[in-house]
Amino acid sequence: LALKDGYLIKLVAEAKDGKITVAPMLVKQGSPFAVNGTLNVINFKTDLADDVMVVGVGAGSIETASAILSDIISIGKANAN
Question: What is the pTM of this model?
């Protein structure tokens, strides 16, 4: 339904007033936030430069799984001592 109406469902993180939320949100197709694959977008709202947007490649599923496994092993080693 979202795609039919011109939207994509994207996992969006927002930090505002000291609170951080992460949730699936509707993003309009063609929006700078409608990235594909391993691309990530971050938008900073600033007093002096207004909005500053950065787009770049993030980690894929293999890289993320490897990092999580490494963290689990490190935690296991720390708890063994």
Answer: 0.64
